[in-house]
C-alpha cells in the first residue's frame, strides 16, 4: 500500500504542474502577436499563465539573443549559431520555464526546440538529428506538452515582415533559406505529429488567437 500511495501522490503532484505550450512558425506567421493575445485573454479569465520567448526570456538569454540576431554579425558560423541558440534555451529553461511549471503556471513560449530543428537543422542545412543532439544536451530532453504551428507559406511570411522598420539577421536571409525553414517545419511536424497541431495562420490575428485559445482551454479544462 505504501508504494501505491506514493504512486498516487506522484500523479497528484504531476497534475499540479503547469503545462508547457509553445507556438511555432516561420517568420511573419504572427506567433508573438497571437501568443501575447492568448496570454492576456487567459489571464483575464483567471488562469495562471505566462508569456515568454526564445531566444531570450531571461537576462542572460536575452544577451545571447542580441548576439544571434544582430545584423552586423554576418560572419557567424552556422554551428556557432546553433550552439548559441541551445545555450540561450538552456538558460531560459532553467531560469524561467521550469520554475514556473513547478508553481503550476502554464507557460506559453514563442518558439522552443522545434525552431532550431527547422532553422538550423534545415535552413542552415546542419541536419535535424545533429541539431536535436545539441538541444538534447541543453534541455535534458524536456519538450513541450503541446505545440501549435502557425502555418503560413514562406512567401506570405516574408511579405508580412517586409514592412517592418527593423529586420534582424535571420529576417534578412534569402527566400531560399526561409523556404528550407518552412519545409523543415513540415518534417518536424511529421516527426512529432502527436504533439504538434497545425493552425491556419493566413487568417487575421484575432481569429487565429481565438482558435489557439480555444485549443489551449481544451487542454486546461480537459
Protein architecture, described:
The structure is a single chain. With 222 residues, this protein is an alpha/beta fold. It has one domain (18-220): P-loop containing nucleotide triphosphate hydrolases (Rossmann fold, 3-Layer(aba) Sandwich). Helix content is 58%, strand content 12%. The chain has helices spanning 2-16, 31-44, 59-69, 78-102, 113-123, 128-139, 154-161, 175-191, 205-220, and strands at 20-24, 49-53, 106-110, 146-151, 196-200. It is globular and about 45 Å long.
User: CATH-wise, what's the superfamily?
Assistant: P-loop containing nucleotide triphosphate hydrolases
Q: What proportion strand?
A: 5-15%
Major β-sheet profile = 5 strands, parallel
Rg, alpha carbons: 18 Å
Helical percentage: 55-70%
Mean pLDDT: 93
Q: Order of helices and strands, N to C?
A: HEHEHHEHHEHHEH
Count up the domains.
Answer: 1
Which structural category do the helix and sheet elements fall into?
A: alpha/beta
CATH class: Alpha Beta
Low-confidence stretches: 7-14
CATH topology: Rossmann fold
CATH architecture: 3-Layer(aba) Sandwich
Strand order of the largest sheet: 2-3-1-4-5
* Tertiary shape: globular
Q: How many beta-strand elements?
A: 5
Supply the number of helical segments. Answer: 9
Distance between the termini: 29 Å
Amino acid at each position: 500500500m505504501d508504494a501505491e500511495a506514493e504512486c498516487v501522490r506522484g500523479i497528484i503532484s504531476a497534475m499540479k504542474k503547469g503545462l508547457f505550450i509553445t507556438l511555432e512558425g516561420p517568420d511573419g506567421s504572427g506567433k508573438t502577436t497571437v501568443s501575447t493575445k492568448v496570454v492576456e485573454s487567459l489571464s483575464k479569465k483567471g488562469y495562471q499563465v505566462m508569456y515568454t520567448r526564445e531566444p531570450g526570456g531571461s537576462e542572460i538569454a536575452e544577451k545571447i539573443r542580441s548576439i544571434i540576431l544582430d545584423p552586423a554579425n554576418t560572419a557567424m558560423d552556422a554551428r556557432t549559431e546553433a550552439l548559441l541558440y541551445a545555450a540561450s534555451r538552456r538558460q531560459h529553461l532553467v531560469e524561467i520555464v521550469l520554475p514556473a511549471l513547478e508553481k503550476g503556471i502554464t507557460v506559453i513560449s514563442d518558439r522552443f526546440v522545434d525552431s532550431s530543428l527547422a532553422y538550423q537543422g534545415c535552413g542552415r542545412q546542419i541536419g535535424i538529428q545533429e541539431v536535436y543532439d545539441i538541444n538534447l544536451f541543453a534541455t535534458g530532453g524536456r519538450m513541450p506538452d503541446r505545440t501549435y504551428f502557425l502555418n503560413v507559406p514562406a512567401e506570405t511570411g516574408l511579405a508580412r515582415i517586409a514592412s517592418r522598420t527593423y529586420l534582424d539577421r535571420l529576417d534578412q536571409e534569402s527566400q531560399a533559406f526561409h523556404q528550407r525553414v518552412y519545409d523543415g517545419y513540415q518534417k518536424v511536424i511529421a516527426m512529432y505529429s502527436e504533439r504538434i497541431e497545425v493552425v491556419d495562420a493566413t487568417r487575421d490575428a484575432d481569429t487565429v488567437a481565438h482558435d489557439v485559445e480555444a485549443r489551449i482551454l481544451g487542454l486546461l479544462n480537459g
